[in-house]
Amino acid sequence: MELEELLHKHxxxxxxxxxxxxxxxxxxxxxxxxALLPTGMGKSLCYQLPAYILEKPVLIVSxxxxxxxxxxxxxxRFGEKxxxxxxxxxxxxxxxxxxxxxxxxxxxxxxxxxxLQQQVQEKLAQVKLGLIVVDEAHCISQWGYDFRPDxxxxxxxxxxxxxxxxxxxxxxxxxxxxxxxxxTLSLKEPFEFxxxxxxxxxxxxxxVLEDKADKSSWLMRHVKETAGPGILYVSSxxxxxxxxxxxxxxxxxxxxxxxxxxxxxxxxIQQQFIDGELDWIVATNAFGMGINKQDIRxxxxxxxxxxxxxxxxxxxxxxxxxxxxxxILLYSDGDEELAKFVVTGDLPSPQxxxxxxxxxxxxxxxxxxxxxxxLGETAFRVLDYWxxxxxxxxxxxxxxxLALEKYHAVDEMLKxxxxxxxxxxxxxxxxxxxxxxxPENCCENCGIHYDEIKKERITAExxxxxxxWERRLQQLLLxx
Length: 480
Hints:
Layout: H1 3-11, H2 20-28, E1 33-36, H3 45-54, E2 58-61, H4 65-77, E3 83-86, H5 92-100, E4 107-110, H6 112-115, H7 118-124, E5 131-134, H8 139-142, H9 150-159, E6 166-170, H10 175-185, E7 191-194, E8 202-208, H11 212-225, E9 230-233, H12 237-249, E10 254-257, H13 263-274, E11 280-283, E12 298-301, H14 308-315, E13 325-331, H15 335-343, H16 350-361, H17 368-371, H18 377-389, H19 392-418, H20 423-430, H21 450-478
Parallel strand pairs: 1-6, 1-7, 2-4, 2-5, 3-4, 5-6, 8-13, 9-11, 9-12, 10-11, 12-13
């Protein structure tokens, strides 16, 4: 059976999107693959279809619980029953059941942390996998060194096994990030597919304001006057709560979203947004990866993103339906200093390194630092990982290098904000690519007619509404 026939049989689609066929063919030839496909271009299909052809379980390592649940629900909508998310949402009894019947699932989703649990590894060693997928693989580089070191341990686990082909998926990655992915996962002469990172239907706004108060005034006015769905990214949980409460008081259906909420609360808020029960989400960068919502019309950054890669990931959540969408970045003088403070907040200090070694010499578990509140959980995870890999002085040098890298990334983002040239060209160029064609209402520097975009969006919404009413009339009159 031809690939197109299988595509139609299992998913109802008539043709592949750019890159999907090439990636799938490489997997079926048992090659390792690294695929960079923009958000909304159907990355998931690149492993979903091979699972039906290979007729062996596919293991998908995914960074976020909400992303896993999203992908599980999507497969269930296509009628797939042999799918499971092996994560912390499972009770002990459920986990035992899943592990006992693991080889019977077609799709097995899990996190790096769960993957590295001994009982999970022992069970996976008994399963003949057809494919291993590392979803959102840029997290290896962006998170592995300073946020979730278990991402780096994925490579260690893979190297101990005679593994099947490996697929690394991401929406955006610089040449450095791609090299990190190759090395960490030990990809063997991978087939690489890179789609252009530009999203021409997203219009890039940048508005310079005097200070925080001006930003707040502008945001209140803008959100009142324009329709969602939209995401407002802010720098802290406190700001998320403040804006969310202010919007609610103004009669705007809004919720805050940040890591201070429990996993179930975050999942509930995300589902409300997907279902159209909320117009705006006010979030820290904890929100959005893998969110399956096609009609987000606006993404606004109230504060400066930590780096260009994050910015591209976050604005890429808008306009997945192909309709016009708006990305607006608000900037005030000095925002870069706040960004530098935030990005290094979870890095351990040289004093923490000394204390870790001191506790070891006293035969005290270094985890005591966590219990005493000397440093946070994220910082301790990072410190604990690197102290097991390197000497004290090497760890200090590494942490210093990480801080400098983060400062440099903020400076690169500042260049994008301050440029007088085409913002889109600069963004695309950062990923080593060239802009093929400038769209109308390209960016702030090329000229954006905000009213035009707003009209386009309203027209599109009215058109959709009209079609839906026509369908409803047909159903009422014709009974179908």
